Amino acid sequence: MYLLEAQYLYQMLGGMVTTIQLFIVSWVLAFSVALTLVVIRATEWSVARWLVDAYVEYHRNVPLLVHVLFWYFGMPELLPESVRGWLYQHNAEMSLAAIALGLGAAAYIAEDIRSGLRAIPDTQFEAARAMGANYLQGMRYVIIPQALRHAVPALIGRALLLFKNTSVTMAIGVAELTYQAREIENDTYRTFATYGAATAMYLAGAFLIMFIGARIHAYYAISGGRNA
Amino acid sequence: MIKMEKVSKWFGQHQVLNDIDLSLNKGEVVVICGPSGSGKSTLIRTINRLESIQGGRIEVDGEDVYAGHMNVNSLRQKIGFVFQQFNLFPHMTVLDNVMFGLVNIQKRSKKESMERARSLLDRVGLLEKINAYPGALSGGQQQRVAIARALAQQPPVMLFDEPTSALDPEMVGEVLQVMKELAKEGMTMVCVTHEMGFAREVADRVVFMDAGQIQEIADPETFFTSPQHPRAQRFLSDVHIR
After folding, report:
1. Which of 1.20.1330.10, 1.10.3720.10, 3.30.565.10, 1.10.10.10 is the CATH number of A6-220?
2. Strands B79-82 and B205-210
3. Is there a contact between A130 and B104 if contact means CB atoms under 8 Å apart?
């Protein structure tokens, strides 16, 4: 069984590790950006709302592959020569891929959290404000925690999508799982076995994400329901 | 403690508060009653700026509530507010609900906050529910938690906006009991309520509102035995028939 040959096994596992790293970094980035977008979007300030809407629409309407290519080939042109040189010598494809994936996913995650937000009655915010909480305290302690609980099922779906979409970054040479699978296939011509193994690894990762998501969902479920 | 002078408010063309004058001394309990739509809830919501006003002046504890430099958040920490629908935070335990203002707004230590929250929950008779979530409590219990939560930051003034109107009849008593004890301890209170028995027992004055105006202010004895305003007479006879 050639895949058990140390060389290919390590190559495949190395790809999986890169995929997982890329997924985690871009998820954390996406989640932070999404939360920021939601908090800005919830203000009454129309310019901020317009900017957030523009951000979301841009990312929802540009193909992910184009977005990744743009960040890798296009964006660095705006940087000064020295910074660009440094970047390309320091794993630029990995960090730019994480940024591209993260920013794109943030647009969708922000929309999911915003749907959760709409499920929270205004009186919750009013109750927090009536106690003397300022806008950010009300959002942080009262509104966002409840909105996230409502959004968990949708967020699990987004996490899966983001995990699978990491494969797009092979186009800019990120040595993730799909990239490594293709390398092995080029070496060995064993197409079915190689992509079969990659498929199994993606499935295993996806099941793990679903399992963790279900645990989070159960742990954070609001006891006694919303009738408060 | 609270002073309202010529307070007016409009919703569009409709005037919901019309030249309201009302003052409360420290320790006084005032009950506001009147038919629905008369502006009672709007009135108490202007005191902590949950509603804005277009005319007049409101002072709480000597400070102009609507002054430009007024920090609305520190003002509200001095005014406990109890809602008709309780509005507890469903994702927090009873204890965390009561600790919320102390820990997250006033940034007090967990230990100090927990001691105070426990003693307040003991006072409203819910110490054994400390780790329960609001969704697992009855309406009456939720409202008692909400009162404890409003008391946590030790406000000198408490406002109650129809605190028993959303409750099943058999739970009204337990909430009124807590409010009565509070009144007897000398809390300054403004209560919008239809509970005439409560008004009779603990109010220093009863305010009758109709059509955005205060029609009558009297001590409970006078108000209930010989109301002056015809609208108040009709209101009282309706309430008593019910």
Report:
1. 1.10.3720.10
2. unpaired
3. no
